[in-house]
Amino acid sequence: QDNSFEQFIINYCNEKLQQIFIELTLKEEQEEYIREGIEWTHIEYFNNAIICDLIENNQTGILAMLDEECLRPGTVTDDTFLEKLNQVCATHQHFESRMSKCSRFLNDTSLPHSCFRIQHYAGKVMYQVEGFVDKNNDLLYRDLSQAMWKASHSLIKALFPEGNPAKINLKRPPTAGSQFKASVATLMKNLQTKNPNYIRCIKPNDKKAAHVFNDALVCHQIRYLGLLENVRVRRAGYAFRQAYEPCLERYKMLCKQTWPHWRGPARAGVKVLFNELKIPEEEFSFGRSKIFIRNPRTLFKLEDLRKQRLEDLATLIEKIYRGWKCRTRFLLMKKSQIVIASWYRRYA
């Protein structure tokens, strides 16, 4: 019910994770079609970079304004911080406050004077400004760190390395917001170098009960998780894409011209394969380095044909082996019979 500084930085982290989700799914997927030379109509989606900028901008961001209030001399209160936000962020389309001069909030009784509201990607969230300054400026005094470092217990000493007299830093320690912002930036940098797979969990009801499906709750989660945009891009584009070489290697047994070996470019082999299987042209497109398949049912059809073909090949191998084994045994018995007959005739 009451969101303070802790919930604010948690939601900021969620916004950054949503931003990288957009970058690595919606944006990257549409850019891949352009790179591969696939005809594509761009699909619009909401990019939450504007919300991240509202929070983390080095000059006009909320965290920057909060740090400025914590570090400036004079009387500093939560109200002066909110007043500063109203001066800097009043015209921002995702920021709302009763104290701002914007007339559209003057009659909004749901927004108290000591609060501000941010329209996040997942929806609007109201924050109580009380405690923001103190929590952001929650610094451990140097003499306390030095006292803890002098403790005889090794664990306590390890928890306060900044108390080491040899490492005393006279600079003001960074604020909680600055530390969290730096940690989020490190996390984002780390994720950008990886190839993450996303698992989106949908909660069917609030009662943790089986066989209960709350439509409104599920729709809300689908909307704020960004799944609608993802589905729109996927349905307008191609459900499956694969480089030509592994695609030809996997399905080459479905065509006599490509089995067992194809002599030529992999793209030409895939083209011959798809023509042989009479797959409709609207179901696939040839990129510069990949084959793009539009509907999952086409992929399922290829997998079913491959499964059947593997069974046929296994039966063929088994048939040839059994024939060879029976023929070898027959020839051996025939040879033995001739030897026995020749010896019998000699002594008959």
UniProtKB/TrEMBL annotation:
Coiled-coil stretches noted in the UniProt entry, renumbered to this chain: none
Transmembrane regions: none
Chain spans, region Actin-binding: 184-206
Keyword Transcription regulation: no
Domain of life: Eukaryota
Gene3D superfamilies: 1.20.5.190, 1.20.58.530, 6.20.240.20, Kinesin motor domain
InterPro entries assigned to the protein according to its UniProt record, in alphabetical order: Kinesin_motor_dom_sf, Myosin_head_motor_dom-like, P-loop_NTPase
Keywords recorded for this protein, A-Z: Actin-binding, ATP-binding, Calmodulin-binding, Motor protein, Myosin, Nucleotide-binding, Repeat
Gene Ontology MF terms: actin filament binding; ATP binding; calmodulin binding; microfilament motor activity
Signal peptide: none
Any one biological process term the GO annotation gives: actin filament-based movement
SMART domains in alphabetical order: MYSc
Domain Myosin motor, residue spans: 1-307
CC terms in the record's Gene Ontology section: brush border; cytoplasm; microvillus; myosin complex; plasma membrane
Family under the similarity heading: Belongs to the TRAFAC class myosin-kinesin ATPase superfamily. Myosin family.
Record's protein name: MYO1B protein
Species name: Arenaria interpres (Ruddy turnstone)
Gene: Myo1b
